[in-house]
Amino acid sequence: MASESSRFTSTRSYRRFRSQRRPHSLRTAKTGTLRSSPQGFFEKLPAEVFDFILDYLSAVDASVFSMASKTISDCIMRHMSTSAWRNRRIWQWFDCTSPEAEGSALDHFRRLGLLFKRCTLLLPTKDRLRFSYSVFSQVPCLAMDQCAAFPFCRGFVYYGVFLTTLIAGWDELECHRVFDFICENTNLQRTIEAAVTCRPGACHRLELVVRLFCRGVLLNQWQRRRDSFFWLMCILRPWPIVSQARLLFILFGPLQSDGKIGWQRVRDHVVGQGGLWDLAKAIILLHDHEETKGWRPDNVLSIMDEMMVTPLPWHSENMARLLILCGKNICYNILASKAINGRLSEISRLLIFLILVSEKDGYCMKWAVKMTQQVCQVFSVASEKWSFIQSVENMFSEVTMELYELVMAGNHNGDMDPLQHLCCLLNASAHFHTEIVYMSLRKD
Ligand SMILES: [Zn+2]
């Protein structure tokens, strides 16, 4: 861009133009004609000279200029519809840039968003969207799955930054129109449907398209939680719980080392905090938002229940780690709903892995002890409490034996050495029981 502007500033005609518009006397002499002409001085200029001026202006300057009058903004929109403008201001920026150039590309699309926002200010919402889309629609990076550099192309992110700036401050009704417009023009709903009805992992490219498009264009660019919630709800709301669970995992689940969605990874391998954090943040966002039309915060618990067995039950440590990352309210609600339904062995297993993850990830063991106590309170009868405690303690032995068998088989599946796992579990058990004994002694 710098070289481009220096090219323009060095031309003769530019100097001539500046020398003509500078003198104050000219401005005052023409005031009468200006009032009746919305294009002002520029009406006298040949179209190509006016285009030349617009080429010289930065996006922000052009955005301010567009607010001078309806005629000026029409001229600017016409100029922006030319292929020369599109090539220079849009297409060339979509060439997948190096990470170092990413910052300036994001700034560029933010400024373009401002330009489109200002120059379409007087148009109805649908026309504003139509105009913006007509300028961007031919970029292959924005058509689902047509960019040669997919999935490494940053096109969706650039478009997301542009779109977020364009629609910043629009009310919910208008944002719904934006979502409908995007669905109509990109076939988003049909792509999502194909991705969530396919066997998990079978249409891995389609799953990635959904993930990158939704996160890049619709979700990742918002700063306020209520905006993030609104757009996530737009994506999730049309689908039943089973599909919502699939979709949430496609959008935020961990990836595998080959770049595919990590369905197999959460089942067969231990996933660290970093891999589950995005999912946990999305779950917290859905859970913490007050009830709205078509959404109850409790729905997210059913989604989690479904997600953690899709397509097959996750590794217990991954379930426990996700629950811990989601915080104590969600964790308790999941365990308590299992307790109410008498799923003792499931809760016990989850609690043992909560204790193991607390040990491994360095959380205070008091957290796991309090969670166990709280879940125990769900059982009102003494005999039920006793069965619960027995079940938890038996599960300690069971999981220890499982790990011991893994050690004996010498099978470590690419994860942590099973012997280290076993040592962690024994340490976790010691710390957990120390905390319980200490708490009961303190009471006495
Ligand atoms: Zn691309």
TrEMBL record:
Residues 13-27 have a biased composition (Basic residues). Signal peptide: none annotated. Residues 1-34 are annotated as: Disordered. Residues 39-88 form the F-box domain. It holds the Pfam family ARM_FBXO47. Residues 1-12 have a biased composition (Low complexity). This is F-box domain-containing protein. The lineage of its organism: Eukaryota, Metazoa, Chordata, Craniata, Vertebrata.
